[in-house]
Amino acid sequence: MGYAEVGASDPVCGRRSDRDAGRAHSRLKRVISVAAVNDIVIKIATVNGTGSASANGLLLKAIFRMGVPVVGKNFFPSNIQGLPTWYEIRVTGDGYQSRSNRTDLMVAMNAQTYAKDMAEVTPGGWLLYDSTWPRSQLLNRTDITVLGIPFSKICNERFEGVRTRILMKNIAYVGAIAALLDLDLEVITQLLEETFGEKKHLVASNMEAIRLGYDYAMENFPCPLPARVEPMDATKDQIVIDGNSAAALGCVYAGATVGAWYPITPSTSLMDAFRSFCSKFRVDPETDKRTYAIIQAEDELAAIGMVLGATWMGARAFTPTSGPGISLMTESIGLAYYAELPAVIFNVQRTGPSTGMPTRTQQSDILSCAYASHGDTKHVLLFPADPAECFTTAVQAFDLAERLQTPVMVLSDLDIGMNDWMVPAFEWDQSYVADRGKVLSAEDLEKVDKFYRYLDTDGDGIPYRTLPGVHPKGSYFTRGSGHTKLGGYTEDGDEYQEVVDRLLVKWETARSLVPEPEIQYSKFNKAAILTVGSGNGACKEALDRLSSKNIGLNYCRVIAFPFSEAVKDFIEKHDVIYVVEQNRDAQLRTLLILDSGADPAKLVSLLHYNGVPLNAGFVVERVCEEIAKGRAA
Length: 633
Hints:
Radius of gyration: 28 Å
Shape: globular
Number of strands: 25
Distance between the termini: 44 Å
Number of helices: 19
Structural class: alpha/beta
Largest sheet: 7 strands, mixed
Strand order of the largest sheet: 2-10-9-8-5-7-6
């Protein structure tokens, strides 16, 4: 049983504490509390710029270190400081990776959002708040339990300095949550020691703040709550990492040595991570010289130009950006497509159009990337589903870009790129050899009478290329204007068409080279879910929930564009395909119709585009609605 508010003077709480000044009192109202082990959602409401990110990360890592699967989602404003921010920690013993659509324990540390935060608490859940300043409005709901701890008061009494007191107040709620959910304090101490190293005074001050919150909760509330965390052994060989860091590490392992970019949310941290990794792994141990180049350009137009110049010279180069950056890069992307220059572009998608909401997630750049630039262009797209795939996809992107001599775009999103995911520890094949594609060496050029840059001699649509300075025979004029298959300038229609038709042959070659989709298939199911990227976690959880309702569906996750024959075959085998994507205009559905020739009548759109990561509840609800309409086998 729980209470509308539990205070130190109530019999259920044990002895009265002299630290309960400022605690709000209320008439006790019994409610039925959520009872669960390792299945709880914690949401923490704070103010941006108050240091809560460190406290929230500490909580998530502590639960992970206890062997319990966990996932973190950050909802933060696009300004630097002062606006509301939320961090959601989903404790999921079943190992689900998507956001939940409930809140069991709300930690309300921002008075500006109390009403919103209280409304989000699941019936039977708890709201923990700073009761230094009592808030009677928090007691309006009779179906939740309100727990008041005077965090500001107890921290102000123990710490000096305004900034320090704010930081320690956030660390104190870590202690309170540890008591309420039965988290291991030894694990938290170990994490602090790893974070601060030899700075023992910081470990001590943080642990003091944690103890303040922990002891207050233990003395004044029934601990642990009915919903709590118990140690498991389900995180062995797993790591917690964000997608941008994973992609950056993949670039290092792929052999990338040049990165050019213009800062933009939510992709900037990808280049920050690449710089950090390069400073460790791209420095000559003998000369202490850097063997990499990272350039912050004046804008995205310059950034993509630098990448194309570097790849033309033979370097593996890339640029990270987001939707507005893609808009600025499109002309140069078209140049790379027509002049056949390899390049890797990471688009960490956010909401649009225009500036949109820079710190919210979407999958709204699918079409703009697939056909970027004016004229007839088609671009290879790769869609990682989580940070583990960001790592492997980065390597695939460089290999495909050089094999196909064309831009390859990796379409991640803010949810993958900036949030904390639990994924299997990365593995690396030590025998890996980069696929540089059809590059002629000096020895190769000695054997040919004359080199023609755009001549397809193998029938796969991919010509041979050379690198500058290798051999005089390998020189050619790189053209974005009309050119013949021999590399000469032309305005002759037939000669122009011969080249662009050959690019279509290369496109079909790409179809056979890109990664195959992930498919779960049973011949007994005539309906299926099809999704892309970060929709994977929510859709797989939705499949489990639907199965419990005796609704059996097959599953396809598209991993690359152009779509392979396996995608076409999957669609043809079903009467109804629920296409789940995170944009308003059904861009994936449109692309499926354009590239695979899918019957539009089969493809039913389930669209989620409010900027918040997709959750399984949305998918289940929408599938059931469509079934009720008769749109199912």
